[in-house]
Amino acid sequence: MTGGMTGGGSAATPADLGAFRAHVRDWCRAHVPDGWRRAQTGVPDEEFVSFQRAWFQELRRAGFAVPHWPAEWGGGMPVAQQAVLYQELAAHDAPRLVLAFVAIHHAASTLLAAGTDAQRHAHLPAILDGEVWAQGFSEPDAGSDLAALRTSARREGGTYVVNGQKCWASGAAHADWCLLLARTDPAAPKRHGISYFLLDMRTPGIDVRPTRQATGESHFCEIFLDDVAVPAANLVGPENEGWRVAQRTLGAERGMTMLELAERLAHGGFRRLVDACARPGPGGARPLDDPLVLDRLAALETELTGLRALCAELVADDRPGPADASVAKLVYSELLQRLTDFAAEVAGPAAHTELRRPLSSGWESGAWVLDFVGSWEWTIPGGTSEIQRTIIGERGLGLPREPAGA
Amino acid sequence: MPGGDLSEFHDELRAVAAGLLGAAGAGPGAGAGDRVPVDWQRVAAAGWPGFEVPGALGGADATFAEVAVVLREFGRAAARGPYPAVAALAVGALGLLEPGPGRDGLLRDTAAGGAVPVLALDAETDDPAPFRLARTPDGPVLDGAAGFVLDAPAAGRLLVPALDPGGTAVIVDTGPRADGLDVTERPVVDATRAVGRVAAGGVTVRPESVWRFRGDPDGALRRLRDRAAVAMACDSLGLSEAMLDATVAYASVREQFGRRIGSFQAVKHACADMFVQVALARKLVAAAVRAQAEGSAEAGVAASMAKSYACAAAVDVVGKAMQLHGGMGYTWESGVHVYLKRAVLNRSLFGPPALHRRRLAERYRGSAERA
């Protein structure tokens, strides 16, 4: 573990936590914008972006934007407090940091784990000031087999010249910078010829085109790279070691994101589902009066409780097991899918009239049908559920690998 | 979360327990289901029945957390013997009673290994006290029956939860051979377990054998049912871990189509699902054990989550273990069936998963009223 992105490690006493919880509650009551859900449903992109920027600064002023960063960079919150923070933000239905997500998690964890001092100083403060990041890893022919990527970076003096095409870059339309994997040695075995770069999205030769996804939204983008010059100073880690850098930072970042997402799913999504089940349907009956509904809810709550404990441990543990991050991601994404599936079922036909999700909301916005459709955004990207199971089997359990070439 | 010292102690205890139970012929490699009970004197010599007994009475002044470590190892080894009934239930009940010469003496004897008390808690019904104590000219008389009492056939003493003539829950200390008391063994499919029906028909009880709970008696009975549920969850967690390990070991050596079967994605992914279920069960059981040991207000919720999840997951996990062992897994000799039967029994005892989920769901009504 090299990232150090676990905030502070010191244990907080229950009394400290109680006081902290009260502090966050007061803060939420004073700062979560009234009616933001309605106001942010179906707004144009620019409005979403300015709302996200303003909310990020609001959280930053309170010390809540990057609690998981090391103290020297503006974080340092003990893990137990982070869990409380995320619980209260979810319970008060605070907007999520959607636009800054890759910046505060993936970019920060990469810079902290493998970046140079100059890179950290150039970007970590800038991220706090609102620098937006995207991730340029996947390609049309390099999805689950990410190491098959073909975007090339050819060294010419002090710069690399990059050519190729990236896809599924979330938020790239608004990104200032991009985490980029490109091939620097076409002759080497596929995992050994890849390098990791920081790409300035204002560089000439970059064309970003949104991809409309299953929910109708378009936050994923394709990035076309045509003779794009990247200074050698923007290389992260040694040349041709990019695969290892990515592997190392992906696991570190996963713990951070999972804690927030698990608490959001439990304290936002599940509560919203229970409330929805308590409302009478058109026939006057409430789903909550149906013992089968109660049984399903209790099963979901139980699994969510287990997931939250797994995620808290993943963040708190200095030396997590080799498959712990994969377990958390797999459990979270499949639980999100089952919860939104069940919600769409009990919410009935009326749920189908919710045609848009409030931007800035969680993955369980309460527009259940779209939430369910959108849940594949978790079971597919970031290593599909199948890839996670393979990682768990091979790294977690030590089962034999697939024969080479398979 | 336990401090570093405690978790080191638990690791040590786990290793000692695995060694002792393994040497007693239990464990996944032990084959068929014809197991002898683990020698009680060795269990007592290890200090396991006395974990929660006060030091002044010869116990270890420890908590349910240590009992839970051993319960999990009993599950992992699919070991026979009344440890769960004695340590989790009887000692648990005694700990909730007013101190007195009878109770204190029994705790002392239990810690020393001389007494094997069993709590006549019915694992089949949700009735916490199916016995009644009547006032008669000859003193108190006990009537009632519990149909499914874990380890009743091994009981040296019986602790019978009953309602006294005023309707207050008490514990009646009696012997399995008392006049009018009948303990009938009920053979079950799981050959690692002993179960009996305990029936009392006009059993005369000495007044000094009627022991009262400290504090709220109904709350005490609820706590005992929660402890029983958590004990089953610990057992199921241990047996799930054993079957996951055995399956991974088998899939790593067994070859078909010229490959080790663990390299096939279908097998690997099934093992990954077992791993995930075990990981979640471990978290929920740890939380439930902690809540029991601390006597927290959320102990009932945590117990129901652990019982419903870990005991259902164990059946899935052992089922996959049997499937992935192929024909070998279906043989008597492989011993996988021992674990399957035990997992299925654990799921049924002290409330099936659906009952515990119903308990959890009662909390959603608050939400219903808000809406």
TrEMBL record, chain A:
Family matches, as PANTHER family: ACYL-COA DEHYDROGENASE, ACYL-COA DEHYDROGENASE FADE29
Record protein name field: Acyl-CoA dehydrogenase family protein
All copies of domain Acyl-CoA oxidase/dehydrogenase middle, residue ranges: 134-228
InterPro entries with a match to the protein in the record: Acyl-CoA_Oxase/DH_mid-dom, Acyl-CoA_Oxase/DH_mid-dom_sf, AcylCo_DH-like_C, AcylCo_DH/oxidase_C, AcylCoA_DH/ox_N, AcylCoA_DH/ox_N_sf, AcylCoA_DH/oxidase_NM_dom_sf, Mycobact_Acyl-CoA_DH
Superkingdom classification of source: Bacteria
Ranges where the Acyl-CoA dehydrogenase/oxidase N-terminal domain occurs: 19-131
Family named by the database record: Belongs to the acyl-CoA dehydrogenase family.
Requisite cofactors: FAD
UniProt KW keywords: FAD, Flavoprotein, Oxidoreductase
Start and end residues of each Acyl-CoA dehydrogenase/oxidase C-terminal domain: 240-396
UniProtKB/TrEMBL annotation, chain B:
Enzyme nomenclature, EC number: 1.-.-.-
GO molecular function: oxidoreductase activity
Acyl-CoA dehydrogenase/oxidase C-terminal domain location: 229-363
UniProt keyword terms in alphabetical order: FAD, Flavoprotein, Oxidoreductase
Xref: SUPFAM superfamilies: Acyl-CoA dehydrogenase C-terminal domain-like, Acyl-CoA dehydrogenase NM domain-like
Cofactor(s) needed for function: FAD
Enzyme class, first EC level, given as a word: oxidoreductase
Gene3D superfamilies: Acyl-CoA dehydrogenase/oxidase, N-terminal domain (1.10.540.10), Butyryl-CoA Dehydrogenase, subunit A, domain 2 (2.40.110.10), Butyryl-CoA Dehydrogenase, subunit A, domain 3 (1.20.140.10)
UniProt superkingdom: Bacteria
InterPro entries noted in UniProt: Acyl-CoA_Oxase/DH_mid-dom_sf (IPR046373), AcylCo_DH-like_C (IPR036250), AcylCo_DH/oxidase_C (IPR009075), AcylCoA_DH/ox_N_sf (IPR037069), AcylCoA_DH/oxidase_NM_dom_sf (IPR009100)
Family that this chain belongs to: Belongs to the acyl-CoA dehydrogenase family.
Annotated PANTHER family: ACYL-COA DEHYDROGENASE, ACYL-COA DEHYDROGENASE FADE28
Record's protein name: Acyl-CoA dehydrogenase family protein
